[in-house]
Amino acid sequence: xxxxxxxxFQIRVIAxxxxxxxxxxxxxxxxxxxxxxxxxxxxxxxxxxxxxTHEQWIDDGVRxxxxxxxxxxxxxxxxxxxxxxxxxxxxxxxxxxxATPDLAxxxxxxxxxxxxxxxxxxxxxxxxxxxxxxxPQAEVDFTNLDDQVIEGxxxxxxDRLAAFVGVGLVETLDLRLGSRLVLTAQDTNKxxxxxxxxxxxxxxxxxxxxxxxxxxxxxAIAGEWLGSGDDVSKIAVMVEDSTEVSSLVRRLxxxxxxxxxxxxxxxxxxxxxxxxxxxLVAVDQFGSYVIFAILFVxxxxxxxxxxxxxxxxxxxxxxxLQALGLTPRQTGAVVLLEGLLLTTVSTLVGVGLGxxxxxxxxxxxxxxxxxxxxxxxxxxxxxSVVIDPIIIPMFSVARxxxxxxxxxxxxxxxxxxxxxxxxRIDIAESMKFDQ
Length: 435
Prior knowledge:
Blueprint lengths: L1 H23 L1 H39 L4 E4 L3 H4 L8 H11 L2 H4 L2 E16 L2 E10 L1 H7 L6 E4 L9 E5 H6 L7 E7 L5 E12 L4 H4 L2 E5 H8 L7 E6 L5 H11 L1 H5 L4 E4 H4 L1 H38 L2 H9 L4 H35 L3 E2 H5 L7 E3 L2 E3 L2 E2 L5 H27 L3 H4 L5
Parallel strand pairs: 3-8, 5-7
Antiparallel strand pairs: 1-9, 1-10, 2-3, 2-6, 2-9, 4-7, 5-8, 6-7, 11-14, 12-13
Helix pairs in contact: 1-15, 2-13, 2-15, 2-17, 13-15, 13-17, 15-17
């Protein structure tokens, strides 16, 4: 019992000495604390903005591409040909799997699409076209093209000979609402066939490759036109956020094990289906990690400077304490605790500041156009993907705990050297120092 009381008393003495020194050197403490607070706050807010930015890129990219997960014929990714399509029976199995309770709760949108490379022609001329045959009702939940209508409307479930056309193609072919448009492509028998449609809507995506080539038509009319029936090129699947993709792909591969093993279907995540987008996200993440490393170094040097300077200016004090019975180990513990207290309090305040900033921008988002200028007033373009400049921060408890853990680790490491210096103080020599 006496030993326990003695230990508790020693810990109390060490804590009092550590707090006293932090209060005594107010200016130095506040400067270091401010650096840690700002660093921790920037880390939390930057992580939230970075994660939100990447999620925005991914979401906008997969909505105009292959979805978070893509179910398609193994050869379609390379050939892009009509013959490398999903047969109707495989499509039925895939859609049945997506409708099961295990997956349905995760999925936010499913779009069965028939991708056709062909020509679009009018009296004004002909242009290459990327024809996308879709189920209009499903596509409204999947893509955001219906929000980009500038004239007319998007396709409806009861449409037959209807087309939703990019503004660039409309201008090139001198089209308007109600204009006739002839689509020409190769059918399942490899014969060139044409289909007459009428323009019911015009959209502006902002990316020239989309505006100048894309035409949406109903999936049913495409099946009749090309003889593909209910076959599709791919089934694109959307989930709430990209963190669920790996689990979704794994479950889909299990549900489609038989056709996958037979070489009739493959399931791809967005990183495999859109490697350019995956590379862009990876490069941006690497840049963020470099910035975070610099912030950690700055925080570390700030802690080292404060704690080490306190040691160098307190040789006489430490000598007196050791003469009164404080051991070298306990002297080092005082210095170490100073660094830990400074780091802990400042980190918690900084994380609170960063969390508040994240919460502040959580509703309306963070407008990157304010930073980048008028060139991003509407949208940012990356290849054929247009990115909304309004970024919604993504707060992550795991990310926040990682930030706290890393800064605490930096604080411990930065306090070790000054603490070791304090343990090596010679009592006789320390008495020669002035107060």
